[in-house]
Each structure stands twice: as structure tokens, then as C-alpha cells.
Amino acid sequence: MAIALTIAGSDSGGGAGIQADLKTFSALGIYGASVLTAITAQNTRRVTAVEGVSPPLIRAQIDAVLDDLDVRAVKIGMLGTQPATVAVAEGLARCARPVVLDPVMIAKSGDALIDDDAVQALRALLIPRATVLTPNLPEAARLLDAPGAATEADRLDQARALRAMGAGWVLMKGGHAAGPDCVDLLVGPQVLRLTAPRLDTRNTHGTGCSLSSAIAAGLARGMDVPAAVARAHGWLQGAIRAAGGLRVGSGHGPVHHFHEWWAA
Question: What would the 3-class secondary structure string for 46-59 be?
Fold first, then answer.
């Protein structure tokens, strides 16, 4: 059984964070382990409270998992603070497995999920550790202290700038761009352009978490990065298309992680 580890925050509404990651792993046939970095009180409409897990407890969780489980890939999501980011970097220092880093900064509701010091620590400690970095356009701009990418050429340039920080591959997600198609750019030793029709739906809560976890699931199974990203991209499009039948919450609903297994 391939095992993947998610290091992220908890979403009490179940659509994003640790909950989305574990659902993704299960849907794709991967055993999921988890390390909580924060607890959020949130639903499909808003985040009402956030409380971070202490850095020593974050380290203890990482040590407990790595001491016993044969983890084949790691996904990192919400970290929130600089001490939490440092704890994760230190905890993974002895882990040689692929890392998918999703630089979570803002919830779908618009609530901030990270502070400025943590962004600096991401740049210095975790981007150089990332096998795949998966920013959306606002996250890429903040990591680079640059304006948001306005064109596909700008996105390509920003992906290359992020890769110059040490990431092996950068997946620039195009969900925040305009146009009838959503275009993701995977930039590494080669460039892969992934396109899908832009869907008119409110069921997009947890899409970034789920995509990065799906990539980690592919890497845990031994896929190379382009194959893992392409599989994750197609799986997520199916999860978004099938989400309308779930009818969860009154705001941004979750995707249907198990769309390949049962219909909503």
C-alpha cells in the first residue's frame, strides 16, 4: 500500500485542508497519514476562527509518522505562521521523499490563512525543498512580491522565477485568470500546458488542496511529475463537474472527491 502524508490545517466544513487531502488520497487508492498545523472553524461561507497547533506538537506528529510509516510522498498545505513553517522544515529534514507544496494563503471565502513572516519562511525553507510547487496566481504574485500575472507569458515568467528559488517544478494554476478555458502551466525541465473548459460553478472549495494531494498521490505511486500532474488535473476536473449533486452548504461547495466511485 502506497502511503502519502498531508501536513495542513483542519477544515471543520470538510471541503478543504486535511479533510480534502485524506479524501483525495482515499479516492485515488492511497493510504493517507496526517499532521495538523492548525484548526479552523469554517464552512462553505466563511472562516470564523483559526488556532495554530504548537510547533513542538507539529514536530512530534511528523516524527511519529516518519518513525513508523513508509511515506512515499508528502503534501504541505496551510502552515499559517513562521514557527509552524520552521517546524515542518525541520521535521522533514530527514525525509527524502517527493514534496508537493501548496502555498495556502487565502481561503475561498477570502479570509487570510498566513502571515508575512510565514511567507518569508516558505521562500527560504520550503520552496527549495519542493518537488512541485502549486501556487494560484495571487499566491505566485505574493511569493515573488510582484503584480499578478496578466497573460500566459507572464505566468510562464513567474513560474520560472519561482523555480529559480529552488522548486523542482512549478504548477501555475490558471483558475483566477479569465477566458473560456482554464490553463495550468507545469514548468520544469520541460513545459506542459494543461487546459480544461472553465466551469460555471460555485463548487470550488478545496480545489487547490485536492489538486496538490492528487499530485502527491501520483508521486506516491511512483509516477513522474508530468504524469502525476496530468492525472491529478483530469481527476479534479471530474470532481468539479460532479460536485453539483452534492449540495453541501450555501456558499462555495466542495468538489466530489469520490466521483469515480459513486454518483451524487
Answer: CEEEEEECCHHHHH
